[in-house]
Amino acid sequence: MQLKTFITLIILFVLLTLPIGCATLSTRQPIGDKSGIDLSKVQTLSFTEVKERLRTEGLGFTTLKAKANITITSPETKGEFRCKGVVRFQKPGKIRVLGFKLARTVFDMLSDEENYWFYLPNEKAVYTGKCNTVRKRDIGMFISPDDIAALLEYDKLFEGRSAYMETWPTYWLVHILERKGDTVVPYSRLRVDRIDNRVTDLTLFKPDSFIKVQASFYDYAVISERPIPEAIQIHWPDTDTTLNLSMNNITINEPLKPEMFQFKKPKKARIIEIN
What we know:
16% helix
């Protein structure tokens, strides 16, 4: 009996000293306190209001010009690759990003809304194809210029498509759907901050509903009375590639020369057709 009593006392002691589940849950901090967000500033808007703001107030510029610090992480680069660069963008669908290192061009990517080009001088190769098409894997081209342009024009995502919205404590998730025959598939998804109505994340899907490309927008600054993200992170799951653009010296809505978006084949470079 004494041994049983001793064992019972030990078990009781262990049970009493263990943290109790209910007590642990009751000490959790509210979402606003935990994330540092003042929930009193959170807006309550209807889906119609959110959609209208995205369409009219989103990235409200027709052109963008900037310098950039660029980081690319990919199996192709075997780790992080860093360089300086410039970004030029013009609606609709035109973008050019050039990377430089030690005063030499290390890449030149361009999209004119219909076609794209990705030039790698070290390989003496130009990858080219039609915009808005699905690429095959393992083709050597690990960044898609036309995807970058599409991410900067999310006001166009609603055109000819249906959508719905989820409301979360500090953000909205806007799901945009596209009809393929008798099937409705996801086309894109936006995460919108409920305090300042700014898009923080954007996902584009492939026709098979798998993720095509994801982007996160950071460090918004007001430039010419427009909120502009100074940092953009873009990830392509198929090639496990991440592109970080940290922009500075940004100007918007200034005319850009048409030749900026006209590709000229470099001498001795081979052309690789993607699709």
